[in-house]
Structure formats: C-alpha cells, structure tokens
Design brief:
By secondary structure, the chain is an alpha+beta fold. It contains 7 helices and 18 strands. Helix 2 runs antiparallel to helix 3 and helix 6 packs antiparallel against helix 7.
C-alpha cells in the first residue's frame, strides 16, 4: 500500500518576503541614527524631550469602541450614549496625563558595573530617584530588545533600586547596552517610554576551564626571592611537618584534607627555604593547547587555582608579562590582562 504524498507546503507570501528583506534594515538604520543623537551618560533625568508616548493595542481598541459608541449615539439620539462616550474620553485623557507624568521627572542613575566572568551574566544596578511628592507606580526597566522586564514602584521623595541583567557574548571591555524605561500605568491604554545609553563599561573575564587542570611545574629561580612553586601534579615541593606558629597560608590544605579523610590529624607546611629555589609562571605558550581562547581559558583556571592556594605566581602573555605576586591585587591584574589579551 503506497503512502499518500506529502501535502504541499504553502508558499511564503511575497509581501512577507519583501517585509523581511527591506523593512528590517531600514528600521535598523533609523534606530542607529536615532541612538547616535542620544548622548551617553550614567545619570539621566526624564523630561518631555526624551520621553515618548503612544497608544497600546488596548488603547487603539478603546479608541475604536469610543468611535462606534459615538456613531451609535448620534444615529439613535442616545443621551446616555453621549454621556458614556464623553465620560470614557475624559478617563482616557486623564490616563494620558497620569501615564506621562509617572515617567516624566524621574531620575535614573547607573552604578559602576563590577567585572564578571563570561557566561555568568552581568547585573546592572539602576537607581530610580523620585523627587516628587507623589509615588510612581509600575515602572519597568530592561535592556533594549531583551525579553525580560524588571518592575518597581518608587515612593514619594524616595528611591528604588532595580537590577537589570544581560549576557555579554565575549570577553573583554564592553559598553553597557542601551536600556529602556517604560510604564503603562494607570489604564494600560498608553505606554510611555524612554531610551537610555549609559556611558559605563563592564569588564568581562574569560571563562575558566572546567575541570581546572593541574598547575604547571615551577621554574628554577634565577635571582630574587619569592614564596612558592608548584609541581606538575598541582602539589607543592618542599613540605615538612606543621610547626606551631606557622602561617596558615603555608599549610598544604590539600594534603590536610586527605589526612583528615583517612582519620589522621597530621598537618604539613611548605618549606619556604626549598620553595624559594623555584617560581611559578603561567605561560601562554606553555598551556599545551592550540586555540587561543582555549589557552586563555586554561590560564584563567590556573590564576584562580594559584590564588586559592595563596602562592606567588606570574603571568606571561604575548607582548606582556606580569611579575610575581599574590593576593587579590595580583588576581585582578592577571584576570584583567587575560580579558584584554
């Protein structure tokens, strides 16, 4: 028994194809022209010059309903129809004023974005300040063209903080994307919005390789002094039994965890005299990988691992070398260099 031939696929209407081919680029060019006229600033006060208003779908339906109601009242000489029509028109007109004044006069301020790792998302902290003596309700913030909205009410002569998130596509220094503020309070028949281009930038660190590979072997020290070196398996050479008074950063906690797991309470410390003979270098050319982004991802994992262990380490990148060091300042220097590499 032969199966029936598949049903023919309906062709795409020529009008839809033309709309997709020429309307989208035109809208993109108009938007780019509009945005270039907006100055970049981290603080924006919403005024009549930068606040826009248009009816929503519900607003257009209300307008059509009022028109039909008015026509019916005229044709049938309905006094109550006239009353209802003008009553609804008055409500809609007052809704326009309330909706526009809800956003007009509001002050937006963007806090300095903190650096984030690629893939974890970036959160922007926006402070909404209301200097008026009345509260403002149902104010939404979002990244332009993003699906998610964050809604908040702002008390009278007070402020409210909203957190807007976006997902950078790559590491490096990124300009904060264009933001959008909007409200449809009180009736939902009109929407008032404003476009905001912040001047801030956010630094995106590379994504660390998971699982984190073992630290590379330490290199013989030519001169100077330092603290620690790592062997090829990620553990430290030159360990000895723990002595009372040893700094906690000298304790090899990986070995201590293994000892505690077996029921032994022995602690070991790094022997600083032996560890000073070597130094740990995280080298771009010694990662054992071919792709550039994979190398940077592995170096990021090594930086985080060395920082957790509290050892001295340096970073070698093409055209740049960061000297030996440890602590939070060293970690931030290395992560910034990897992000901008």
């Amino acid at each position: 028994m032969q199966s029936a031939p598949p049903a023919p696929t309906a062709p795409t209407p020529p009008s839809a194809a033309r709309k997709h081919t020429w309307l989208t680029p035109v809208r993109a060019r108009m938007r780019e022209w509009w945005w270039q006229r907006l100055p970049r600033t981290n603080t924006l006060t919403l005024t009549q010059r930068n606040t826009y208003i248009l009816p929503t779908g519900a607003g257009w339906m209300l307008a059509l309903t009022l028109l039909l109601l008015l026509v019916a009242s005229i044709n049938f000489q309905l006094n109550l129809g006239y009353l209802l029509t003008f009553l609804l028109v008055g409500c809609a007109a007052s809704g326009v004023y309330v909706c526009h004044s809800t956003l007009r006069g509001l002050q937006l301020h963007l806090g300095e974005p903190a650096p984030q790792f690629l893939g974890s998302g970036c959160t922007l902290e926006v402070t909404l300040t209301n200097t008026a003596r009345r509260a403002r309700y149902a104010i939404g913030m979002t990244v332009h063209d993003a699906p998610g909205w964050v809604w908040s009410d702002v008390p009278a002569q007070g402020s409210s903080v909203v957190h807007v998130t976006f997902q950078p596509a790559s590491r490096g220094l990124h300009a904060v994307p264009t933001l959008k503020a909007e409200t449809r309070y009180p009736l939902g028949t009109f929407r008032v919005w404003s476009i905001w281009r912040p001047a801030a930038h956010v630094l995106i660190y590379p994504r660390a390789e998971v699982p984190a590979p073992a630290l590379p072997s330490g290199e013989p020290r030519a001169q100077g002094s330092g603290s620690a070196a790592a062997s090829g398996i990620g553990e430290f050479d030159g360990v000895r039994a723990y002595r009372r008074g040893d700094p906690l950063k000298l304790v090899v906690w990986k070995k201590a965890a293994k000892s505690f797991a077996t029921g032994v309470d022995d602690l070991v410390s790094r022997d600083s005299q032996q560890s000073q003979q070597q130094e740990l270098w995280l080298d771009f050319s010694a990662t054992g990988l071919a792709e550039r982004e994979a190398r940077i991802s592995r170096l990021t994992a090594w930086v985080l691992q060395a920082d957790r262990l509290g050892v001295d380490y340096g970073l070698r990148l093409p055209g740049r070398e960061i000297a030996q060091g440890n602590g939070a300042a060293q970690r931030l220097r290395c992560l910034e260099a990897l992000a901008l590499c």
